[in-house]
Amino acid sequence: MLRKIEFIICFNVLKGEVYNFLLMKSIDLTKKLFVLDIEQGNEVWIPKSLSLDGYPKSFQYYDPI
Hints:
Layout: H1 2-10, H2 17-40
């Protein structure tokens, strides 16, 4: 299901609420698969959709200590 959603998103034909819904569903499914791999003890890489590398520094947690 995740591959189908990512396939639809990559065409950039959707806009508005449907696009946002599919994007959030994609992130949710990716997160669930990530946690499942961790729970099973598999070697895990942080998926690109969950990584904060693509976001501005203001989106990242800042600890003043």
